[in-house]
Specification:
The chain has 345 residues and is an alpha+beta fold. The protein is built from 11 helices and 9 strands. It starts with a strand and ends with a strand.
């Protein structure tokens, strides 16, 4: 079976993704006047911030685009897709500005799914790397709210263990009470004891199958095709994302060359080049891997298409590709390119 993945780039604009200007908004600012400390869930857009390829490594623009995709999914509440994408930005583009900003969005994502210790870690990482960054004020406010939340829930590791022990005692004394079981499962989950949480959810769903549609439970466990309960740990979520989209095209860039060529009598660039890398993120080899690169002129005019065959990519293997074009009326009229990857499993 054939699969495809795409990556696009712009030649003329070279403009990344401009964020809408804004300031840090907190619903809790208004709520605080009413005595409510519950924070609103807001993504902060830095005023006037922009990401471009100009003057920096090609990975800056690529990382910024991936970050923007993750941010839009975060806005849509697709947390299971957001986490692996943000972790990918941090690990694959560690020297970019987007990798720093990704830590802020990781903090926001974990905050939304009540992963408060992880949220606090990423907010603090951002502040350590960019103490005067665009998201610094937001991070400090979120960190304060997270610390309050952690303080209310688990002031210390001992208290966290004590709360779980209390929930275990309540379940043992009255195993028929649903609320006690859900409290116990939640305590296990927040403490990273995913297997134990899964066992409790298994028991709950066997008695109350209608809870399979509960938002919290659906985000933590699901029933597999074989009828077994699958625990959606952060590692499992990241693995699924890698398996569903195993071939990733990244670090794409375009450049002009050829003025030193024998035929370049006018000392002008005569070749348009597109380069990049691909990685197989899955645990299985990908066969018949091909990258098809197309360059476009104004109005969507297709100048030329070339395909590079990369053969088989082993799990986690990275390979580079480069294509040179000369079939266009004028190199200045090449406005964008598109890289499409295909593979067979």
């Amino acid at each position: 079976m054939q699969f495809v993945t795409k990556r696009r780039g712009s030649e003329t604009a070279r403009v990344g993704l401009r964020r809408r200007g804004g300031v840090f908004l907190l619903a809790c600012a208004a709520l605080a006047a009413a005595g409510c400390k519950t924070p609103g869930y807001y993504i902060v857009a830095p005023s006037g911030a922009s990401y471009t390829d100009g003057g920096g490594p090609a990975s800056e623009g690529t990382a910024a685009k991936e970050l923007d995709t993750a941010r839009r999914r975060l806005d849509a509440g697709e947390y299971s897709n957001v986490l692996p994408r943000l972790h990918h930005v941090v690990s694959q583009y560690p020297e970019t500005r987007a990798a720093i900003d990704a830590r802020y969005f990781l903090g926001v994502t974990y905050y939304r799914i009540s992963g408060f210790p992880d949220a606090l870690n990423y907010f603090n990482e951002y502040l350590e790397l960019a103490p005067a960054g665009d998201y610094a004020a937001a991070c400090r406010e979120y960190a304060r709210l997270v610390e309050e939340e952690i303080g209310k829930r688990y002031q210390t590791a001992d208290e966290a263990a004590q709360r779980v022990a209390q929930a275990e005692a309540r379940v043992a004394a009255d195993p028929g009470v649903l609320a006690y079981k859900l409290e116990l499962a939640d305590g296990y989950w927040r403490g990273g004891r995913y297997s134990e949480a899964g066992a409790v959810y298994e028991e709950v769903l066997s008695k109350w199958p209608e809870l399979a549609y509960d938002a919290t439970i659906r985000s933590r466990v699901e029933r597999g095709a074989d009828g077994q309960l699958v625990i959606l740990t952060p590692e499992e979520v990241m693995r699924r994302e890698a398996e569903s989209t195993p071939l990733v095209i990244f670090n794409t860039a375009s450049f002009r060359s050829g003025r030193e060529h024998l035929y370049a009598r006018s000392y002008r660039d005569i070749f348009y080049n597109v380069s990049g890398q691909v990685v197989n993120r899955s645990q299985d080899p990908l066969h018949q891997v091909q990258i098809t690169v197309t360059i476009y002129g104004f109005g969507g005019l297709v100048y030329e298409t070339q395909t590079v065959s990369l053969g088989t990519l082993s799990p986690k293997q990275v390979r580079a590709f480069s294509v040179r074009f000369s079939n266009f009326d004028a190199i200045e009229n090449v406005v964008r390119y598109e890289c499409v990857g295909s593979y067979a499993r």
